[in-house]
Structures are given as C-alpha cells and as structure tokens.
Design a protein that fits this description.
The complex is a heterodimer of chains A (368) and B (384).
Chain A (H helix, E strand, L loop, with lengths): L3 E6 L20 E2 L3 E2 L1 H10 L4 E5 L5 H7 L13 E5 L14 H6 L1 H6 L4 E5 L3 E3 L4 H10 L3 E7 L12 E4 L5 E5 L6 E10 H13 L5 H7 L7 E5 L4 E3 L3 H10 L3 H9 L14 E3 L4 E3 L1 E3 L4 E2 L2 E3 L2 E2 L4 E2 L4 E3 L2 E2 L4 E2 L4 E3 L1 E3 L4 E2 L4 E3 L6 E3 L6
Parallel strand pairs in A: 1-4, 1-6, 4-5, 8-12, 14-17, 15-18, 16-19, 17-20, 18-21, 19-22, 20-23, 21-24, 22-25, 23-26, 24-27, 25-28
Antiparallel strand pairs in A: 2-3, 6-11, 7-13, 8-11, 9-10
Helix pairs in contact in A: 6-7
Chain B lengths: L2 E8 L20 E2 L3 E2 L1 H10 L5 E4 L5 H7 L14 E4 L3 E2 L2 E2 L5 H6 L2 H7 L1 E8 L2 E3 L3 H11 L3 E7 L9 E5 L5 E6 L8 E10 H12 L8 H11 L4 E5 L4 E3 L3 H10 L26 E3 L4 E3 L1 E3 L4 E2 L2 E3 L2 E2 L4 E2 L4 E3 L2 E2 L4 E2 L4 E3 L1 E3 L4 E2 L4 E3 L7 E3 L4 H4 L7
Parallel strand pairs in B: 1-4, 1-8, 4-5, 10-14, 16-19, 17-20, 19-22, 20-23, 21-24, 22-25, 23-26, 24-27, 25-28, 26-29, 27-30
Antiparallel strand pairs in B: 2-3, 6-7, 8-13, 9-15, 10-13, 11-12
Helix pairs in contact in B: 6-7
The chains are: A alpha/beta (368), B alpha/beta (384).
Chain lengths: 368, 384
C-alpha cells in the first residue's frame, strides 16, 4: 500500500477530564487498566501500516512524552520516520497563523519531508481497535480529497451531543456536517486527506485568518472538495467527559466488549512495564473485573478496573470503580463508583461513594 | 577496555531431568513464575549487581533462549560497547566442536574474556532461582584475596549428599571439595556460583585443556586442581532463597514457593526487580463466576472457573466450571468447561477440552501435560 502519514492533532483538545487532566493532557490519561488514551489511536495507525506519526501537542505534555519516549513500543523508533512529538516551538516573527493552524504552519517541513501523499489525521477521544487500512483503500479507490471516518451511534448519550454528524448521499459523498442529534452517522474526528490538499488548505486558512483547520478548511470549503464518508463499523468509544470516561472503562467489563476491543484485531500497544503477575492472596474475592500485572489483592473487588501495581487490603471492598496505578487501599475501606488517579492512598476505614452519573474522583497522589 | 568484573553465564545444558519441559528448549528458557523464564533471575541479578558485561554460553536448542535474550534489552544490557553477548559454539581454524564441559565452554571463549580484560570473572548458571547481590560476593573475594570464591548455603544434613559440599576452616577457607559425598563432613553446599581472579583461572583453563582425560568441568577438574596446588579459595555464605530447578519436582515447588508470602524471593521486591519481557496483552479478565485463591495470574488471561494455589502465565483461558489446583499453566493454554487439573504443569498452547480430569497427585511427581499426552492422563470416566 502507498505510504500513509499519521497525525494526531491534540491542539484543539481541552482538558476534558476534570481532576484527571489537571496535570496531563487528555490523550495521556490512563485508560483500561494499562493503557493511555492515545494508545488506541497510535496502535490503530501502526497496525494499519503507518510508519511515521506526528503528534501536535500544546500543553501538559510531560506525561505524554514520558509515555511515548522513542516510540519503540509502537515500532516507531526508526532511523527514518517514526514518531515526532511536536510541542509549540515557534520562532517565526512573520507568523500570523492562529489556532491549530500554527502547528500546521510551523511544522510544514514535516509534511514536505515525508514521501507519503496522504495523511491520516486523528484526535485522541475516539477509542477503538479498528485498523484504518480499509478506509485508506476506499480513499484511494474513490480518489476523494478527504475521507471522513464515521461510526453509527444507535444509543445516543451525553458524550455524543458535542460531536459533528455527517450528512451524505447514497454514494457516501458528504453533503454537510451538522449537530443534528437525529442523525446517527457521527464523525470520529479521524479523516484521511491528500497531502497537497492539506497544504493548500493550510495556506487558505492562514490567508483568511482562520483558526481551525478542520472546521474552516474542510467543513468551510466543502463545496470545493470531494469528501467521502467511510463507516468504521465496529465498537468504538467516545471519551470526552468524566462521565463517558467512567462509563467506557467499566463498559469494557462486558465480555463481548472486552473481547472485541482487545482481541478482535491486533493487540493495542502500550508502554511495557516490568510488573510481576497479579497476586491473589487467600481471602480475595474478585469478580467481573480487569486486573493488571503487579496488583496484590486480598480484599473484594467487583465490577472494577485495576491498573498496574494496585494493592487492596484484606477487608477492603472496591465496587464499580477505576483504580489507577500503584494506589493503596487499606483495611476496611469501601469504594463505590470511584475513580482514583495514580498513587492515591486510601487509609483504613475510609468510605468513598460516588454515583454512576457522578463518580467520586480523587486526583493524583492524594492521601485520603 | 578494562573491566573489573564480567559475568559468564552457563546456559547450554540440556536439562534432561525436566523431561518434556526441555524437549524442545534449553532449560534456562523454560517458563517460570507466571511471566518469566528461568534465566531471567540470573540475568536480573547481574543487572541489579551492575554487572552489565555478560557472556551467555548457549548450546542445546538455543532458538527460544536466543530470541528471549535478544540484545539484552529487558535487563538494560543493550549497550554500545559491552552488554550481553550470546556465545554459542563456533567453528574455529583448528576445527569445530561442541562445549564438552562447563570449563571447556569458558576456555573456548577466552578471547571474549580477554577482550574485556577483567580483573575477576563471575561464573554462574542459568538454571537457579534466587536473588543475589554479586557485588557483595565480589567484595568478599577481594577482602580474602582468594583465587576463587564459591557461594555456599547450608542445606539440611540429610540432603547434603546430593550436593557438592565444601569443607572449610573456621574463616571459610576451603580445604576440600566433596562432590556428592556419601558421608558429608559438612552441610555447606556449592550453589554453582563462582568468582575467579581471571589471571589465575585463565592459567588453569589453558592447562586443563591439555589434559586428555579431563571432563573440563569446574566442580570435577578446575576447583580440585586449584585446591591441590594450594591456591587460596574461600566459601561465601548466602542465606537467602535459592533453588535449583533441575527436576520436575523442584521446578513445581519453586513455582509454588512464589505463592508464599514470607519469602525472601519476592517478585514484588522493588529494590531487587526481576526483569523479563512484557507483552501487549490487556489486563486479565476475572469473570462473574470466577473464584481465584492464592494464585498468580498474568495479562491476557480470562478466568471464569476456579483457580487455587496455581501459577498462570499470559493468555490462559479457564472456562466456566473448570478448576485449576496446585498447577502451573504455561502461556496460551485453554482449560475447557468442567475440567479439573490438579498438580500438573500444562505446556504452552495446549487446549484441554471440556470435562477432562487430570490429577497429578496420584503420581510420584507433578505431571507434565501437552497437547499430545493429555488424553493419556485423563482420568474422567464415562464423560465426553
């Protein structure tokens, strides 16, 4: 297949996960026991044959850089190509670009240098394990300028209310973008675009003082472009709020969802660790949960996601909760509908109870 | 480049006493402890002891072992000028031959050691489970000014005749090496861990090579002749956990030992980590009908049945109604519905169908099960 360049554009993503994004960007937020949100997008790209990925990031990217490092875990530590984390480093005094156009403008070399003629652009809030190879084949076959990737939402929820809907004709030609909640064809914020079209649009947007590449350059110039819709057709998760974060983490405890997200296609790649197998000590009672390596469990865990290295003391109970890396839960603690960020220590006897609609969130490294 | 100490890790043995487990792979590459291979413990010891130059001598069925070690990345031994080197037998100008003994394997790689020009050489083997700081042993070696230091531990007197026993003076200077003595005078057993002053060892290796009836073995030839010549040799006392996993029984026991809480050998010890490969499998899924008691379970596994006192590697499926008791389940094994596996070691990629009953406790030692032989061990009556 012709080479495809990857771009994960985090420039427009605000800190959408409250306490969890106080000190990190959304893309770097831990998800599903051992991953970070960006792993899904990054793995999809790599699993679809993408060998060069740029990440536009503009703030709170320390955790992101620490996670990705050389990109070796995604096979992206290459002599040529590989992963490029591109934070703002803008020294052009004549630069008049705004919004995410500044990233495109100031990293123009990245696009020029690549041999690929097409670019796959994605955010980090649509999580799925579905390679884009088919979409790319379609994109090449139809000769479209842009192919937008969509998914059908049959059970609309809060997280879908902010998303763009795609209006298309019978041949999948995109006729417009709307916010019509009655339209089930939801845009995943992933699209494939011809590189020369991309560069032309960047010039146009800057010349006309636009500040959003997709909204102004693609949606705004819809009549001038051939835009094709492609249905991703598989389970995916939109994570753009604490509620959707909580819902989708626990949603993976549905056996069908777990199997389809983790095993239907290639494995989702993430930063590897050196944790030993999880240890279940006599007296532990774990049901319907995901448990990661390095955990030591003596208490009760039900319907929960445990990240690596979590310790649960003998008479503690963890229910409907997401417990991130290295949290310590002491004796007689009761947690229900709770999200604990990394390194939280819950002292003996504490009770933390949130609700399904509003989980109780404890920020990183707190002692409760 | 001058090095103070380098490691030479003997990993070429066939490990015949492990039966099926080493049918196709070298003993050091046998799965251990839920996500490790046996050799990970010694390699991690080297890494944690800051010995980053290690030659690994391989010979028997080395493919998986080589693949596992690669360039030594999990142990931080992927380095510019030193790091991990795999030393397999090779063809030289004077012919080709296999390593014929532990000492011979080192002799055939004298050029490798000379290249690093070390003061001392640590000789270890890849089939023991223990955590040990080799730096402390090296300090001891330097303090005593020994030509050779042998790590020892006290074993129960009634087992002493199974080991190489060191008879020492009060200050631990060795005056006699008794290989598997009928009437042991001492219970200090050699752990197969040696530190030599390289210039001394080098001479004995070169000399031993010329002795035609020599087994070219450290225990049988090199150590005794050093002692005979009166070279200073000391024992170094180790009192942590150490286990030779050379037999099915000891292999099974050592895995079960990991389930005990008060062990000095803990995989969760952050001060002395055990390094290995990690994979991209998702966290294990413990289902609604699962019951897990005192066990180790690894990523990618799916548990709907009951797991008791067992060690499960990655990507193991235990279906509803199945029971796994006191067993070691290697990667990608499936245990079918209502099957019961007791005191068994189930090898990689084996699929046990529904309603199979295998009970290793009715045999002398735990049974080793694979796809070919499970039916022979099936004790289920009137089902299927």
């Amino acid at each position: 297949m012709e080479p495809l360049l990857g771009l994960i554009n985090l420039d427009n993503e605000h800190d959408f996960l409250e306490e969890l994004t106080y000190f990190r960007c959304g893309a770097a937020t831990p998800f599903a026991g051992r991953y970070r949100m960006i792993d899904f997008t990054l793995s999809n790209m790599v699993n679809s044959g993408v060998e060069e990925v740029a990440i536009f990031t503009n703030h709170k990217y320390r955790a992101l850089m620490d996670h990705i490092k050389t990109g070796a875990e995604w096979e992206l530590a290459r002599r040529h190509g590989g992963v490029f984390i591109l934070p703002p480093d803008w020294n052009d005094p004549t630069d008049i670009s705004r919004g995410d156009l500044r990233h495109f403008h100031n990293n123009r070399d990245f696009f020029h240098r690549s041999k690929a003629d097409h670019v796959l652009i994605s955010g980090s809030q649509y999580l799925a394990n579905s390679p884009v190879s088919k979409a790319y084949e379609e994109h090449l076959a139809t000769g479209a300028d842009v192919t937008v990737l969509s998914t059908q939402v049959t059970e609309p929820d809060d997280e879908h209310s902010k998303l763009l809907r795609i209006e298309q004709d019978d041949d999948g030609v995109v006729k417009g973008f709307s916010s019509d909640p009655a339209n089930p064809t939801v845009f995943t914020n992933m699209y494939i675009i011809k590189k020369d079209v991309l560069l032309k649009m960047v010039d146009y947007c800057i010349a006309y003082h636009k500040d959003n590449f997709f909204l102004d350059g693609i949606r705004g110039k819809l009549p001038d472009l051939k835009i094709q819709n492609f249905d991703m057709n598989g389970p995916g998760m939109f994570v753009n709020s604490i509620q959707s974060y909580y819902k989708h983490n626990l949603g993976l405890l549905n056996p069908e969802m777990y199997k389809s997200v983790f095993f239907k296609n290639q494995l989702v790649k993430t930063k590897l660790s050196n944790e030993p197998p999880a240890k279940y000590i006599n007296g532990s009672a774990v049901t319907k949960s995901m448990v990661s390596n390095g955990c030591v469990i003596q208490g009760k865990v039900d319907n929960s996601v445990l990240f690596r290295g979590v310790k649960v003391a003998p008479s503690a109970t963890v229910k409907n909760s997401i417990i991130m890396q290295r949290c310590v839960i002491e004796d007689n603690v009761h947690l229900e509908n709770v999200i604990l960020d990394k390194d939280v220590h819950v002292s003996a006897g504490q009770q933390l109870i949130g609700s399904k609609g509003k989980p109780y969130v404890v920020a990183k490294r707190q002692r409760v | 480049m001058k090095k103070e100490v380098i490691g030479m890790l003997l990993a070429g043995g066939k490990g015949t006493r492990l039966g099926l487990l080493t049918d196709a792979i070298a003993k050091p590459a046998v799965h251990f402890g839920g996500k490790y291979r046996i050799i990970d413990f010694t390699l991690s010891n080297c890494s944690n002891s800051k010995i980053h130059t290690v030659g690994v001598l391989t010979q028997y069925s080395p493919l998986e072992l080589h693949k596992h070690m690669g360039i030594g990345k999990p142990w931080d031994m992927d380095r510019q000028t030193d790091g991990l080197s795999i030393l397999s037998p090779f063809q030289a100008s004077d012919g080709a031959s296999w390593y014929s003994g532990t000492a011979d394997a080192i002799t055939k790689n004298i050029h490798y050691i000379d290249q690093h020009d070390p003061e001392y050489v640590l000789v270890i083997s890849g089939d023991h489970i223990y955590h040990m700081d080799y730096r402390k042993m090296l300090e001891h070696h330097k303090e005593t000014g020994a030509s050779a230091t042998i790590s020892v531990m006290e074993v129960p007197w009634d087992e002493a005749s199974r080991f190489g026993i060191l008879n020492t003076k009060d200050d631990l200077e060795v005056y006699e090496f008794d290989e598997k003595p009928k009437n042991p005078k001492n219970n200090l057993a050699s752990m197969g861990i040696y530190i030599f002053t390289w210039s001394d060892l080098r001479q004995y290796l070169v000399d031993d090579e010329k002795v035609e009836d020599s087994d070219h073995d450290f225990g049988k030839d090199i150590i005794p002749s050093m002692l005979k010549d009166g070279l200073p040799m000391y024992a170094y006392r180790f009192d942590g956990y150490w286990k030779d996993v050379g037999t099915i029984k000891s292999y099974w026991e050592a895995n079960m030992d990991l389930l005990e809480e008060d062990l000095t050998l803990s995989l969760n010890n952050k001060e002395w980590r055990t390094y290995s490969h990690d994979s991209n499998y998702p966290p294990e899924y413990i289902g609604e009908t699962a019951l897990v008691k005192n066990s180790l379970i690894t990523s990618g596994s799916w548990i709907d049945g009951t797991v008791t006192q067992s060690v499960l590697f990655e990507k193991v499926d235990v279906f509803e109604g199945a029971e796994v008791v006191e067993s070691i389940i290697h990667p990608s094994v499936k245990i079918g519905k209502n099957s019961k596996i007791t005191k068994a070691i189930v090898m990689e990629n084996t699929t046990i169908p529904d309603n199979v009953v295998i009970d290793g406790s009715t045999y002398d030692e735990p049974v080793v099960i694979n796809q070919e032989n499970y039916a022979e061990f099936n004790q289920a009556k009137g089902v299927n």
